[in-house]
Structure formats: C-alpha cells, structure tokens
Design a protein that fits this description.
It is built from eleven helices and seven strands. The protein is α+β, with helices and mostly antiparallel strands. The strands form two sheets. The protein has a five-stranded mixed beta sheet, covered by helices on one side. A hairpin with a 3-residue loop joins β4 and β5.
Length: 348
C-alpha cells in the first residue's frame, strides 16, 4: 500500500506540465552539450546550444499548441506533415541568422554554421516529430490511468451498493424469525437478541473494510448457525465442520452468508419432514473452501428454487467476480432432494 502511494505521488509530480516540460528541455540541453563536447570553446558551445534550445522550443510549442490540435487531432495527416516541415524550414534560417550575428568576427565558426544548415534543419524537424510522439504517448498514459481510476471508483461504488443490499436483506429475515418467536413468547427470544446484537456489531463496525480476518467471518457464521438452531429447534439438523487452522488469513466480509441464508430460507422453507443443512469449511494457508448442502422439498419446482436465490445470491456472485477475478470457483449442484454449493476462494 505504501509503495503504491509513493508511486502515485511520484506520478502526480512528474505529470505536472511544468515539471515534465522542464525535465524534457534540461535533458535535451544535456544531450546537445554532450554531442558538442569535443569543441574546445565551451562557452561558445553553451551559447550555440541555448540558442538552439530556444528555437527548438518555438517549433515544439507551435507544434503542440497549433499543429496537433488543428491538423493531427482531426486526422489531417498530410496537411500536418506539410506544415510541420514548413515550420522547420522557416525556423532554421532564423536560427542561422541569429547565430551568424552572435559570432560576428568569428569567420571560421560562421562558415561552419553555414555548412551545418542541413543538420540544423533536420534536428529541428526530428525534435518537432519527437514532441509529437511524446505527446501521443503521454496522452495515452494519462488516458489509461484515468480509466483505471474511473474503473476503480466504479468498482468501489458497486461493491458498496452490493454489500448494502446484503446486510439489510439478512437483517430483514432474522427480524422476521425473532418476531415470530416473540409472538409465541418463546424463551429463546432473549438468546437470539444477544446473537443478533453480536452479528449486527460485526456488520456495522467491522464489515466496512475491504477485507476482514477470516477468524471473525467464521465466528459470524457460527453465530448465524446458532441463531438458526434456536429458531428451528429439532426440525432441522444443522452441522458445521471446520477443517484446518484459522490463523492470519483475511477475506472479503459476508461472502458465505447469502449461501447459508438460501439454504435455510429456500431449501427448508417448504419441507414438511425434518431437513438438514451441512456446512464444511476447509481452511488452508492460501485458500478457503466452503461446501454447503441442504435438503429441499421434492414437491418444490426446480425453476422456482433456482429463482429463489434472490438478491443475496446474485450479489455474492457479482462480488466474487469483482473482488476475486480468476481466484475463485463456484459450483452449484441440484438433485431432486438436495441443493449444494462449493465455493473456493484464493486468499492471496
């Protein structure tokens, strides 16, 4: 996280126009001085290259501010190339005249400048073309980064929306069960309130992070199952097996609850005889696997059962695609008597 923050700060600094333009011209000046380093008159070399730099800047900024927006951006490639060439042809004589006047009295140098006119023209044209390449590349990099930022913001907004649907969805179902017990004046109601308060504390104060300790998610599942046991009594056989060691693993919050909720709400809802829900959670260092199997009424139409997943199941599938792309595997198996899911999530 710190490395990513540092990279973002460096990128934000370098992407400032004043900064990268200054670095570009300082680098260009260094290259020009290195090329002319063989000349003995160092002050004369500096003077020539500073003048070169001024005229190069004229060509480059005319290219960036006028030629590219008015021709290249409008895909008038022939006109753009023609005017870029014309600009270099126009600037070169002006630069040569300036240097010629600067070195009055130094005839050998003035003669050398006249002989190097073609080189000065080509260098102006090449630097102008180079500025076009850098402009295209910088625009592409900026576009890619802006797109990544936008995708990240959209993804975070979508995750917040999906999770906001999951929490009230589960709370609504639990409160319905509690309401039914209070109408019966059941002694189990106070115990359910305690379990529910622990679960609400977890949802409200700890599930706002992108990831939570796996140990807390397991504890949340255990509280959920204890609540269901209190609610269903002996009507449902609920088993929970934990294999492996829960240590420092982390996982996105509330990934398993929609599947558990569907097992109770939809798998057992229409059963007359006793049903069952079996949960097996296998924890490894870099992967967690959950298997959930529940009984279902044979008379329940298959299509109705498939549709009954509701908001919770659709949301958790969408969250898996966002949070664990290419790092999860979800399989659903249905028979006339059972409904089961297996979910594998890579934790690294």
């Amino acid at each position: 996280m710190m490395g990513e923050t540092l990279r973002n700060k460096i990128y934000d600094f370098l992407s400032k126009r004043v900064v990268y333009h200054t670095l570009f011209w300082l680098g260009t000046l260094a290259v020009l001085l290195a090329i002319d380093s063989s000349k003995t008159n160092f002050l004369g070399v500096i003077s020539i290259e500073i003048v070169n730099l001024i005229f190069y800047a004229m060509v480059v900024y005319f290219n960036l501010l006028y030629l590219i927006p008015n021709y290249l951006s409008k895909k008038a490639f022939v006109n753009y190339a023609f005017f870029l060439l014309l600009t270099a042809l126009t600037v070169t004589p002006l630069k040569m005249l300036t240097l010629h006047l600067m070195f009055t009295g130094n005839e050998p140098l003035r003669a050398q400048l006249i002989n190097d006119q073609t080189i000065y023209f080509l260098s102006s044209f090449i630097i102008a073309g180079g500025s076009t390449v850098l402009k295209i590349f910088s625009d592409w990099v900026r576009y890619q980064r802006d797109r990544q930022i936008l995708e990240k913001q959209n993804m975070q907004s979508e995750l917040r929306f999906l999770k906001s649907q999951i929490n009230p969805h589960f709370l609504f179902n639990t409160l319905n069960s509690l309401y039914a017990l209070t109408l019966k004046k059941s002694e189990k109601a106070p115990e359910i309130v305690v379990k529910l308060s622990e679960m609400m504390r977890y949802m409200l104060y700890e599930c706002n992070e992108k990831s939570v300790p796996l140990s807390k998610e397991v504890n949340y599942i255990q509280n959920y199952l204890e609540l269901e046991k209190l609610r269903h009594g002996n009507h449902v056989d609920i088993k929970f097996d934990l294999e492996g060691k829960v240590d420092n693993q982390v996982i996105a919050p509330l990934m398993f609850i929609p599947f558990l909720e569907n097992s109770f709400k939809h798998g057992l809802k229409n059963q007359i005889q006793e049903g069952f829900v079996d949960i097996h959670l296998k924890v490894e260092e870099q992967q967690v696997t959950v298997n959930i199997e529940n009984s279902k009424a044979q008379t329940l139409p298959t299509q109705i059962h498939k549709r009954s997943g509701g908001i919770g199941l659709k949301n958790v599938q969408r969250r898996l695609n966002i949070l664990y792309p290419n790092k999860h595997n979800l399989s659903i198996t249905e028979t006339p008597k059972t409904y089961s899911i297996q979910l594998q999530i890579g934790l690294v």
